[in-house]
Amino acid sequence: MAILLASTDFWEDMEVWSSGLQDAMPEMDVRVYPDEGDVNDIEYAVVWKHPRGILTRYPNLKAILSLGAGVDHVISDPELPDGLPIVRLVDKKLTHEMILHSLHWVLHFHSDQYLYRIQQQSREWIQQSSVQSEDRTIGIMGLGNIGKAIGDSLINLDFKVIGWGASPKSSLGAIEYYYAQEQLSGFLSQTDILINVLPLTENTKDILTKSELSYLPKGSFIINIGRGGIINENDLLSILDTGHIAAAALDVFAEEPLPENNSLWNHPSVYVTPHIAGQSNPSSAAKTIAENIRLLEKGQDPYPIYSLNSGY
Questions:
Q1: 227 has catalytic annotation
Q2: C-alpha angle 74/26/34, rounded to 5°?
């Protein structure tokens, strides 16, 4: 019985991942692609942007586990084996990193740091009026584990938090919740700072076009840490040019790496980071992956399993 680690992105970290998994599951043989050994031994594939087509090589494969929160890199494989559970990574360290990233940009925009930077370049000494956190509404699109954790952290800082998702939810505490397309405009119209944590599915692709973005109040902000392709980038540039949206902090893009000729790089109201909002912590994530493999070995369901119907 063996675990295969496969990635085209994490090569420099494969030794760390391998050691982490081996420490978490000393009873298992951990192999790193392409040093796979006997393909019949491979029962679990732990992957991130794996070489396309390799998963068909392992006749005894029981499950595919992601090294990150998303599984786009898995399901986009045209030769993906049918019928295998695909397990997303929900790890406390990864969630914590996404909370910190979100808090950084919320506070940056809330306290007018973006504006003071502009003023510094012009050597202008202008004190902006302070806005209390309870008077600032943060809207979160995507109230799964990560979105809910971000919302709770913001509530602890006295921000008003509202949320939106595709379907009804309960037990969201102080977060006022909106759902479905019919309630999207009402949600957006109250949102001063929008945080997108939605996964990319057929239903969420281009869900925020110029029409939807126009519902945001004038002078609002956008933070995208979900997936590129959810916000139409051309429409976002257009509405930024009008000044209706004051600034956007973007960590994910429709095409990654972001092409050098993409206008988002040069826009004065856009902050670009290279998909680093929720980087996996090998030590912590290896333990979470090991726990899910043990559940599978016991015939129990790991958490969370990717759902083909919902797209996440």
A1: yes
A2: 40
Give the pLDDT means over successive 10-residue stretches in the chain (312 positions).
Answer: 90 84 96 97 96 97 94 94 95 96 98 96 96 98 96 98 94 95 98 97 95 98 97 98 98 96 98 94 94 97 88 78
Q: Which amino acid is at 188?
A: L
Active-site entry in 101, 136, 227, 267: 227
pTM score > 0.85 for this model?
yes
* Residues in CB range of 16: below 8 A, 6 or more apart: 282, 283
- Residue 7: partners with Cβ closer than 8 Å, 6 or more residues away: 14, 33, 47, 48, 49, 50, 67
Tell me if 93 sits within 8 A of 281, measured CB to CB.
yes
Active site residue 275: yes
Cα–Cα distance measured from residue 66 to residue 274, given in angstroms and rounded to the nearest whole number: 20
Distinct helix (H) and strand (E) counts, the chain: 9, 12
Catalytic site residue from 101, 136, 275, 294: 275
